[in-house]
Amino acid sequence: MPYKQPVSVLVVIHTPALRVLLLERAAHPGYWQSVTGSQEAGESLLDTACREVREETGIDIPPARLLDWRLSQTYEIFPEWRHRYAPGVTHNREHVFSLEVPTETAIRLAPSEHRAYLWLDLAEAARRCFSWSNRDAILDLPRRLGRA
Question: Would residue 67 count as lying in a domain?
Fold first, then answer.
C-alpha cells in the first residue's frame, strides 16, 4: 500500500442552525471528529474534500457547495498513525473547509472508519473533538459564516 501524503482536509459539516456533525472513529472509540482525510495523488484539495465527505457520510456534493476557508495548519501526526506515512514524516498540513446541509440528515458511515455519528450544538461538538484544530474550526464557524 502506498504511503499517505502528509496533506489533508478537514470538513466541518453543519446545518443553518449551526448543528455540527461529528463522527466517532471506529479504531478509537471516544475519538470524535469532523470529516477528515488525506489528499491523493493528482487530486485538488476541493476534490479531496468532496471525496472524503462522500466516503465518510454518503453525502455527494459538487465542489461548489464547499466553503474553502483558505486556512491551513500544520500539526504533529500521532505516533500511532505515523506508519501510514513515509519514513521520517512526522507532520501533516491540514486544510479547512465547511459544508452547510439543509437539515440533520441521516449519515451512511464507512464502518472501517467510523462507528457512530451525532449532530451537536457548537459548544458540545467542540468539547467532544479530540483534535485541537477541529475544535478551533468548529468554534470559528459562526465568524467564518458571517454570523458571529
Answer: yes
